[in-house]
UniProtKB/TrEMBL annotation:
Transmembrane segments: none
Protein known as: GGDEF domain-containing protein
CDD domains tied to this protein: EAL, GGDEF, PAS
PANTHER family: BIOFILM ARCHITECTURE MAINTENANCE PROTEIN MBAA, DIGUANYLATE CYCLASE DGCP
Domain GGDEF: 296-430
Pfam families, sorted: EAL (PF00563), GGDEF (PF00990), PAS_4 (PF08448)
Residues covered by the PAC domain: 213-265
Signal sequence region: none
Domain (EAL): residue spans on this chain: 439-693
Species assigned in the record: Amycolatopsis taiwanensis
SMART domains referenced in this protein's UniProt entry, alphabetically: EAL, GGDEF, PAS
Domain PAS: 30-103, 135-190
Amino acid sequence: MAETYRRLVQLAALQAVLCDITAQQATEAALRYQAAVVSHVSDAVIATDQECVVTSWNPAAETVYGHPAADALGRPVAELLGAPLDITEVVRGGGVSRAMHRRADGSRAAVRVSVAEMDGGYVLVCTDETAQRRAERYFATVIASLEEGVLVTRPDGVIESANPAALRILRLPADEVVGAAPPLTDLFDEYGRRIAHHDYPLAATRRTGIPQNGRRLRVRRADGSDAWLSLNCRPLFPDADPPHAVVMSFSDTTERRSIAERLRYKATHDALTGLANRSVVASSVTEALRSPDRTLPVALLFIDLDKFKVINDSLGHAIGDEVLQVVGRRLRGGVRAGDLVGRLGGDEFVVVSRGMTDARAARALATHLRSSLVEPITLDGRELHIDASIGIVLAPPGDPRSADDLIRDADVAMYHAKTTGRGRYEFFDVALRERMQRRLRLEQDLREAVRRNELWVAYQPVVALPGGRTVSVEALLRWNQPNLGVVSPVEFIPLAEESDLISSIGIQTLLTVTREMARQRKLHGVDMDVAVNLSARQLDDPDLLLTVEHALRGAGLPAPALCLEVTESALMRDPLLAAKKLDSLRGLGVRIAIDDFGTGYASLSQLLRLPVDILKIDQSFVTGLGESGQASGIVSGIVAMAHAVDLTVIAEGVETKRQRDVLSELGCDQAQGHYFGRPGSSVDIFRRDDDGFETPDG
């Protein structure tokens, strides 16, 4: 029994020893685990006693501070951290502090220190945030230097940060932005509609997490000014649940938009007048023509200024530009609301009017516009006067023509108005287009005719009254076009005068006539004179004097045998300048005649100042002779006036014996016309009989 008891006691003791060893081993294992963790964490873990003397210094502490554990143990912790540290104060303040510590090599480190009390001392966990702080400063500097505004809001919508660009663009101080909850300003869409606060991009992204990219909005800033923004919003943490923290970036596109608008304006408007340019005019006409609900005609008025070139050439382009600006303002002020005024270039303008009721309304508009344009324009103390020729085209509903067709047709009508007297308007019709197309073809053919020598000179006799003896001839240009046949001078001479062809044609004609007349005079032994017409352009030619002198010398024709005829209207454009030019020509020995007298505005006083020798009465006064006493009175007055200043008088367009007899009775010196002979070649004209040279009608 005693032995059994003894064995039980030994077994119990053995169990007790085994239990003690197990607990110790567990504790040791736990300590080894904790030591391993402390040894391998990236944060410095430091243990101190109550006096803040280091009792433990893990490998990370060696890395962070550069002190080996052997040197650190037993030293005050503040000495090793390189910065003052009141551990008890940190514990009382929540156990966390941030400070700049100094490493063993003297470099500085940004460290976050967490402090906890333990039996007999403290544990410090020091996290090296130097790289993180550097990155934060880097990105903060980048964000601060951006021209793009950046706002960051918390999930509750409060603005957490705003960079300087955001404050500059919104024109708000930082203390009114950071910590505030949007909206800070009013936003409007591209159509000018105010956006509700809950639909702001920032609010929508915060609520849904859906990014808002490339929104173009107008913001009403704190100072009342407006700015255009290009705006983007994104959730700061896309995987988080709503509401989201949001980063919003935006750039001020006001200047860029303004530049784009100016470029767009320049691309669609005339730079000088501010009126719509050709492309806008064409687009407007196209839109009007294609309007599905159109029930009234579209009217297009093509306006070309008369006498503008004279202003531009004589007073300079600066004055000309001012005149065009005045014209633009007057046209704008003379149309209805909704009508478009455009400038096509030069002195050509267009008015597009929708809903024009009929031709009468278009006529009234043209009359009104022209009335406003003829009002005097005062610039730099000068009173300038202009007029306009206007072409009108109406396009009823369903008209198949394009915008270019309408502009072309209105141009054709304008051209017709200009060629039939200027200062008037004309409506377009198909027959007019055909006539203008014929004119265009004739002008092209006329250029070829000059090159191919299709033009030739005919001569019409001029006879003395009352006897009827041929005393001179007038050279008249003729054209036999291979496809069209004989083209009337009434049709092709104006074309030549309007183009640059008249100068070359005039020179060639003068050379041809002087050579032919010199040859016929020598062949027949007679002193026959010849008259050649000069156009207004030829009269303006600075080389005219040399051309005439060269022609006379080259042909061997005496200067008095040549008479140069200039129309009254050409002379009256600038009488003083014309007088100088005619005086120079007379200095060569040639004679000067005023052609078509009575069709212009010459007065007796003006005639006295012009160095001329002959006055030719226009056919319009001769036609009524023998039938109208008024016609006889007018011709009698012209003859008397001309004789008073020693001018020879020639009547044009004589077609009947009665007209010849009346002219003889009135004292007219000479006459020409079909009654005396039709124009013919120089060979036909120079037929000699015993009494001298006669017309074919003898």
